[in-house]
Amino acid sequence: MVGVVPVRRRPDGDRVGEMETKLERKMSDPLYIARPILPTLRELEPLLEGIWARRMLTNCGPLHDQLEAALSRHLGVPTAMLFNNGTTALLAALRLHDLPPGSEVITTPLTFAATAHAISWNGLVPVFADVSPDDLTLDPACVQAAITGNTSAILAVHVYGTVCDLDALQDIARSNDLRLIYDAAHAFGCKVFDRAIGSFGDATVFSFHATKLFHTFEGGMITTNKASDRQMIENLRNFGIEDEEEVGSIGINGKMNELQAAIGLLNLPLVEAEHTARARLRQKYEAFLSDLPGITLQPDQAGVTRSEQYFALRIDPDRFGRSRDEICAALREVGIIARKYFHPICTDFKPYRGYPIHSVRDQPTAEKVKSHVLCLPFHGEVSDEAVRKIKGEFLAKSARW
Ligand SMILES: *Cc1c(COP(=O)(O)O)cnc(C)c1O
After folding, report:
1. Please, what is the end-to-end C-alpha distance for the chain in angstroms?
2. Model confidence over 51-78: pLDDT tens digits?
């Protein structure tokens, strides 16, 4: 609960702030799916003083450049370009490749709406292909089935941090002359046999929204394997400005400001401990979920370092004995807010309603699993007591008990 605290005055009479808000966490507060990492205000203060002294508030100031360099190192990619949010980064990543207007971009329906919207905002047509029943990422066979003479790109999502079938998608892209772009909003810090997740395909997009493990309140990034992409991405995120006298392309305002960058610089060192805490929480969840009938967890992938962005599971009501919606409602009763990500799926939303899901199966997997998926609270401050509560609900609702 956010409570308003009376204005404090310094002994000299100066107001500390017009209004101070204080986060009061009570036992009765609901447990949400995410809880953002944050530095202390004391740590933030010197960075704010620097911003105030320089009066350089945005347009790629020193904190912005520091964060960009730090993330490029942290993620192990040659090109890492910051954006003001993940959605503008997605817009720019699609622009980067000069896709023919009106051409088709194949994507997954099991994602956040921003993925499909970025395609539409670029004057391109989203074409939905089904997900794999094994890991819920874009199914290469279904991508193949969705390709037409008008297809120009694939926008695949490492959903829940589960890594897409990189080799198969790359093969399809190569043999059909398609650009391959990844939405890695859930995959910050993922590695595949020590290779950075941001180094696959033609471009990878990250979100640094407050709900993401690493965040800058709002923020985003494009990474690519080629240092030569830098200039073009820089133009795209800054109105297409080439120099004082020339605007060379239809860019956007995608710039991250210095306040966001300051938060990013202070949050980055906190990521490791949060990641470790979530990995421990994953083990606690797995310990009681992995042998319940009708419960499917996201698979362990060979060679993959998990992002620990989400803890997603599927509940098959026929085998489990209770539906996802029943479990979700029961958890809510005891103050635990699990989320049905990503239900409804994109093709259920007004702008995309009636769009087919291209599949090699009679019933698309995405249609089937959308009523099975559930994400549990997943952050470093989920207590053992909360885990016991969640366990209690699952065991009580399981057909086996
Ligand atoms: C969070 C998210 C985005 C959008 O990021 P914003 O930074 O909120 O604009 C895009 N795709 C997926 C899959 C996401 O989860």
Report:
1. 36
2. 999 999 999 999 999 999 999 999 999 8
Give me ligand 1 centre to Cα 44, in Å.
25
- Range with the poorest average pLDDT among 73-77, 136-140, 150-154: 73-77
Q: Which of 117, 120, 121, 207 to mutate to test the pocket of ligand 1 (most atoms within 8 A of CB)?
A: 207
> 177-194 as b/e, with b when 16 or more CB fall inside 10 Å?
ebbbbbbbbbbbbbbbee
Query: Full-prediction pTM beyond 0.90?
Result: yes
Peptide bond into 317 cis (omega under 30): no
- For residue 209, the Cα-to-chain-centroid distance in whole angstroms is 8
Using CA atoms, how far residue 1 sits from 4, 23, 200, 381, in Å, is 10, 6, 42, 16
Whether the upstream peptide bond of residue 342 has omega within 30° of 0, thus cis, is: yes
3-class state of residue 238 by DSSP: strand
Ligand 1 shell residues, CB under 6 Å: 85-87, 111-112, 114-115, 157, 183, 185-186, 207, 209, 220
Task: For residue 148, give Cα distances in angstroms to 103, 105, 130, 143, 302.
Answer: 10, 10, 16, 10, 33
